[in-house]
Amino acid sequence: MATRTQARESVIGLLYAYDLGNEGIVKYVDEILEDKKIRNKQKEFALNLFNGVINNIVKIDEEIVSHLNQGILSDIGSVEKSILRLAVYEIQYEELEKAIIINEAIELAKKLASDGAPKFMNGLLDKVEKIK
């Protein structure tokens, strides 16, 4: 059975593809999660996260940009942006412990993103969390 971390990792992959212009991926989310063996409660969890980010992406991006120091969203790599979008969504819309969300994002950044990403994300997500 898949873990929540694996479900989040799959969501990041889907958000990454979406960010690169593959908006049609929305039609295939069920199949992609099934292929990755994300099933049952974890599939519901992943679908909720993916759909939540997509449905709130403008507000999420505005929140991210509001905490960037003179940067713009396009300066952030697609993997990093996908992790941030997921974490900001969870902080703002889900009833989960904020420290767990931030830690999960940092761990996923260590695994999937560039070397400086975990520190960058920690700082940005800490600012988002303090506002909520």
From TrEMBL:
Residues 6-130 form the NusB/RsmB/TIM44 domain. It holds the Pfam family NusB. Gene3D superfamilies: NusB-like. Keywords: RNA-binding, Transcription, Transcription antitermination, Transcription regulation. One of its GO terms (biological process) is DNA-templated transcription termination. GO terms for cellular component: cytosol. InterPro entries: NusB-like_sf (IPR035926), NusB_fam (IPR011605), NusB_RsmB_TIM44 (IPR006027). GO terms for molecular function: RNA binding. The keyword RNA-binding applies. Involved in transcription antitermination. Required for transcription of ribosomal RNA (rRNA) genes. Binds specifically to the boxA antiterminator sequence of the ribosomal RNA (rrn) operons. HAMAP family: NusB. Belongs to the NusB family. This is Transcription antitermination protein NusB. It comes from Poseidonibacter ostreae.
